[in-house]
Structures are given as structure tokens and as C-alpha cells.
Amino acid sequence: MTENLTDSDKKQLVVGIDMGTSKTAIITDTGFKGMIRSVVGYPKDIIGVKLLGKTQVFGEEALKNHSALRLYYPLEDGVIKDSGDKDYNAAYELLKYMVDKAKQGQDIDVCGVIGVPSRASHVSKELISSLANEFMKTSMVVSQAFMVAYELNKLNNCIIIDIGAGTIDICGIRGTVPQPDDQVSIPKGGDYIDDRLETAIVQQYPAVQVTPRYVRGIKEAHSFVGNIKEPIMVTLRSEGKPSTYDLTEIIKSICESIIPDIIEQMISVIMGFDPDDQEEALKNIYLTGGGSRIRGIDKEIQRLLTDYGEVRVTRVDDPEYIGCAGALRMARDMPPEYWDKVSILGK
Ligand SMILES: Nc1ncnc2c1ncn2[C@@H]1O[C@H](COP(=O)(O)OP(=O)(O)OP(=O)(O)O)[C@@H](O)[C@H]1O
Ligand SMILES: [Mg+2]
Prior knowledge:
347 residues, alpha/beta, Nucleotidyltransferase, domain 5, five-stranded mixed sheet, 13 helices, binds adenosine-5'-triphosphate, binds magnesium ion
């Protein structure tokens, strides 16, 4: 006997996607996990096409071949630039590329939740939602901070501090999907630290040559705030020759330079909570994003907030994937019938 598979019987791949300024990550309910830098390159001319053998290149491969390509960072500043068609296309192609990878060659419908920067405008969210509809059967666009809270199962009286590449986003979660008033964005994420670090190294050691990529590597290996026992000694090239340099003070002061803004904005987010809830919110502060890996930053934020009573700052596990994991959890928990009504959660 042959069974006719109806549309609703057809298997679906459920995905959680986190579309960030610097990286886009995807997780599926079948265990696939993937991450790519959020950049798409198009060959500048026919030589580039010949060299690369294709008309579009994604992620690290695009960065590696940058001289032959015109690069687009579709979510630069956390939003799709509404004006440029190219940014829209790049966002479309990047997202589709990741979804295709996650399908692993299967001909299967895909549904899922897409997290976008909390500060993305409603227009940007609508744009992402409409482009996703072209290759996903059902999709819903949600703010990243909410996905993190969802994964932590902290949907009330909690504060998410997301130290990303472009910005630091601080969001109060108060039992509903966060509204623009619940969140603030500070333009001092990892890219800002990288720029300042590069400038400081060159100022202190003028003969040294560094590239932005190398500086980022130094930061990711050694970032810290507060005190550490061993000095940070790094090999740099000066006039072509390698030597070792002490970067302890430079790294410390630049990493610490983002903290006053975090504290100032934290206070305004705390004040957005009902006074009865502030005590609980202060015990539920979670740090995420790649910058949450800066050694000592959780303790330092906690220390600077001690005047406010008992404060607990917790670093999440797996900060690069937690948003994605929350998106997948939400996609699995929520019946797709409901999604049409809430295809963009949080205006
Ligand atoms: N150990 C580390 N110390 C300091 N910074 C780090 C470390 N590891 C990663 N980062 C930085 O974290 C940033 C990437 O974080 P994340 O992946 O959360 O960004 P994103 O979500 O793409 O950006 P955004 O949230 O601004 O859209 C980069 O600047 C990276 O250099
Ligand atoms: Mg992010």
C-alpha cells in the first residue's frame, strides 16, 4: 500500500539562526551547527570570477580573497541598509547559503526563528522576514537578547548584556518581548576595542607593523580587565624582525575603557524595572556575545554595581551560539500555526 504524504506529513527541518554584525550562526534540530562571518564578496571583474570560479563568495573565503572582491557586510551597524539593493541581496544570499548548508543536501522544508540585533529597526526586521520567506516555509524574526533570555529560561526580571562586534546591547527582560525602550546600544563592541588596540600599539611602538586581523587575534587571546598575575608578552614584527613586547597595560586599559558606559547604561535599564522587581533583576544579569570572554569583566561589572545591593553577573556558556540555541528552542516550542500572527516578535 502506498501512502500519500500530505504537505503536513512532510518532514521539516527546524532551525535557529542568529544573524549578527560579525557572524551568522545556525543550529538545527538534527544537530547541525554552523557559523560564518557575515560578509559576502562579489568579484570586481572577470579576473576575479576566473580566479575564484564563482560569482559570489561567503565568509572567511571572501575575507581571504578581498582584493579580488567587492565586500558587503549586510548587517553593518546591526541593520540592513534600506537604501542599498546590494545589501539586501547580500543578506538574502548569506542567509540562504547558511540554510542550504544546514539542509545538508536534503530536499526538505525549513522553518525556524531568526534572531537579529536588538536595535534593528522594524523596517530591517520586515526586510529580513520577507527575504527569509523566499526559502523558508515559515520563519519568525526576533531580537537577539530575547533569544538569549529564552535559552536561559529567564523571561522575567533579567538583564542581558551582549558584548558583540559592533555594539554592546543591554536589554531588560520584563516578561514580554522587549520593546525599544527596554534596550540600549553602546557603539563600543569588539571592533572598537580592535581599533583602539591597533592605534595604541602603533603609538607606543612606532616601528611595529600589525594588521587588524593580527590585533584581533591578540585581543581574543589575551583580553582582560582588573588584575592578572603574569604580564602579557606578545611577539610583534618590527622592521620585519620578530621581538617580544609587553602589552599588559595597553590591553588592560582598552578593555576597561568600555566598562563606564556599560555601568551608566545598566543603571538606566535597571531604573526601567518596577522598583519591586529591581532586586531580582540585579541578581539575574547575564553576559553574552564574544566580548563576554574578556577575563574578569563579569566580576568587574558586579563590583561596580555593589552600591545597588546584591548583584550577580553570570557569563553564559557558549556565548557565540546561545542566541541560536534560544532561537531553535523557541522554534520547537511554538506551534507554526501561531507564527503567522507573530512573524516579527517585538516591534
Ligand atoms: N576572548 C575574547 N576577548 C575579547 N573579545 C573577544 C573574545 N573572543 C571573541 N571576541 C570578540 O567578540 C566579537 C564577536 O562577538 P559576537 O560573535 O557576539 O558578535 P556579533 O553578534 O556578530 O556582533 P553584534 O552583536 O555587534 O551584531 C568580536 O569582536 C570578537 O573579536
Ligand atoms: Mg550579537
